[in-house]
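Deliverable D2.4 — example input (structure tokens):
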């Protein structure tokens, strides 16, 4: 749902608007994508900490493992595609959303790795620990998006040096 929200923000941002490409739209889009990163961080941190505290062990199945592998490939490919389009369009919000998609791919790989470590060595804590690292990365990206949104605001730029 978080990825869908972030994608919706970018679709809203890149579609033509009668007022043109105004800095306020960029700031608003970056703040909304930052909210998506923050939401991802909160959800992952809460679930990870819950699993680590309660000792909950993730189950695994062949279908689940195949699904995670396919998800990782799709997310990494989609992130690269979005990043290329963002570069062509010069779109900071789309570039940020591409990073969110990339983090989804990393989460899939780490979940897959956590399941493998649990199955091979009984390291039940590997999956929630990996998700906690992704939560930290998502929080960092949320902060970076807010900084970028602030930088896109002409009102926050320092005054010009006197001549």
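Example output (designed residues):
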């Amino acid at each position: 749902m978080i990825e869908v929200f972030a994608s919706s923000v970018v679709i809203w941002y890149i579609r033509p608007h009668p007022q043109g490409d105004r800095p306020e739209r960029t700031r608003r889009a970056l703040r909304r994508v930052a909210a998506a990163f923050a939401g991802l961080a909160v959800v992952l941190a809460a679930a990870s900490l819950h699993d680590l505290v309660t000792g909950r062990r993730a189950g695994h199945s062949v279908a689940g493992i195949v699904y995670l592998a396919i998800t990782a490939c799709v997310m990494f490919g989609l992130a690269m595609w979005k990043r290329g389009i963002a570069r062509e369009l010069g779109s900071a919000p789309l570039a940020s959303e591409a990073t969110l998609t990339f983090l989804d791919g990393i989460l899939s790989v780490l979940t897959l790795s956590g399941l493998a470590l649990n199955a091979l060595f009984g390291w039940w804590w590997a999956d929630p620990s990996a998700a906690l690292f992704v939560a930290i990365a998502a929080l960092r990206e949320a902060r970076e998006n807010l900084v970028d949104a602030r930088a896109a605001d002409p009102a926050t730029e320092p005054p010009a040096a006197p001549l």
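The two ends are 51 Å apart (CA to CA).
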